[in-house]
Amino acid sequence: MAQITLIEAVTQALAHEMRVDPSVVVLGEDVGVNGGVFRATQGLQEKFGAARVIDTPLDEATIAGLTVGLAAQGMKPIAEAQFEGFIYPMMEHIACHAARMRTRTRGRLTCPAVFRAPWGGGIRAPEHHSEANEALFTNIPGLRVVLPSSPGRAYGLLLAAIRDPDPVMFFEPKRIYRQYKEEVPDDGEALPLDVCFVLRDGSDVTLVTWGAQVKEALEAADALAEQGISAEVIDVATLTPLDFDTIHESVKKTGRCVIVHEAPRTAGFGAEIAARLADEAMYDLLAPVERVTGYDTHIPLYRLEMKYLPSVERIVAAATRTLAAS
């Protein structure tokens, strides 16, 4: 079995669902002839035709409006925003229509749409091409927010997102689009949504993260292991609805938690997890919850970009502080 990258896993999942389900369509800027700005849809128009892989005008609001309309009429549209920083014109349709469709119609209509966007920093792009704005969408009832961290999880979670009867915001961490490969069988097997993945068992501290930062968290766990510290690593994967039970069970075991994300610190989704731990796991904690995050600035260009993103060293330092606090 050939090994593939995360971006190739996205393409593989899109192609699989388009083969088996004629109601699946893809639309966005340059998704057809050019295969998308990162080539996630490369070759799909040749396979499935311009009526199912649709090049749209450079107008994100129109893309989102078309997506909602198609979904309400029985199609399964997958809309691409070229970058997460271009998604703001789509938010009116996502928040006011897609996410409310089931409630507004008392279940008569649903909105089985997926809104895809390359997400996060680390590729030396301007700041509006490098945002981690997932927390904005986690505050919208009726909308799932999904962030895969590996080729296998990108394939399985995207299949699940396409098959979901309600709208899904699917952020793809572009820093690791082509960073590494793994075997991903094209078997059509979806992974469960609304579930955290425990990637590494540990007993001393829980590292909670998602997206591209999973790589740094795993590397931090390796570095901590060299110091005799056992770190459990949790990939949240689906931010909303949050599988808090998995996080809570881990914290019951370790007594300590470090939350890692590259979005700005203030009102980042890590704050919600920390609040839930304070509400529901206070007496299981042996030390204050630590957050290792981006800073409350726009991501700086080029030379300071990697200083902005959480590093292995910052994660190790936070874990060490939690152990010293008890």
Question: Main traits of this protein?
Answer:
12 helices, 326 residues, Rossmann fold, alpha/beta, single chain, five-stranded mixed beta sheet, 19% strand, 2 domains, 36% helix, seven-stranded mixed beta sheet, globular
CATH architecture of the largest domain: 3-Layer(aba) Sandwich
- The end-to-end distance, rounded to whole angstroms, is 48 Å
Please state the structural category: alpha/beta
> How many β-strands, per DSSP?
14
The biggest sheet, with number of strands, parallel, antiparallel or mixed sense and barrel status, is: 7 strands, mixed
Rg: 19 Å
- Proportion in β-strands: 15-25%
Tally of structural domains: 2
Q: In one word, what is the shape?
A: globular
Fraction of residues in helix: 25-40%
What sequence of helices (H) and strands (E) makes up the elements? EHEHEHEHHEHEHEEEEHEEHEHEHH
Name the CATH superfamily assignment of the largest domain.
Thiamin diphosphate (ThDP)-binding fold, Pyr/PP domains
By CATH, the topology of the largest domain is Rossmann fold
- Largest beta sheet: what is the strand line-up? 3-2-4-5-7-6-12
Structure, explained:
The protein is an alpha/beta fold and 326 residues long. It folds into two domains: 3-183, Thiamin diphosphate (ThDP)-binding fold, Pyr/PP domains (Rossmann fold), CATH 3.40.50; 197-325, Rossmann fold, CATH 3.40.50. Helices cover 36% and strands 19% of the residues. The chain has helices at 6-20, 44-48, 60-72, 91-98, 101-104, 134-138, 151-163, 213-226, 244-254, 269-280, 305-308, 312-325; strands at residues 3-4, 24-28, 53-55, 76-80, 114-119, 144-146, 168-173, 182-183, 197-200, 205-209, 231-235, 238-240, 257-264, 290-294. The protein has a seven-stranded mixed β-sheet, sandwiched between helices. Helix 10 links the parallel strand 13 and strand 14. Helix 8 packs across helix 12. The longest helix has 15 residues, at 6-20. It is globular and about 60 Å long.
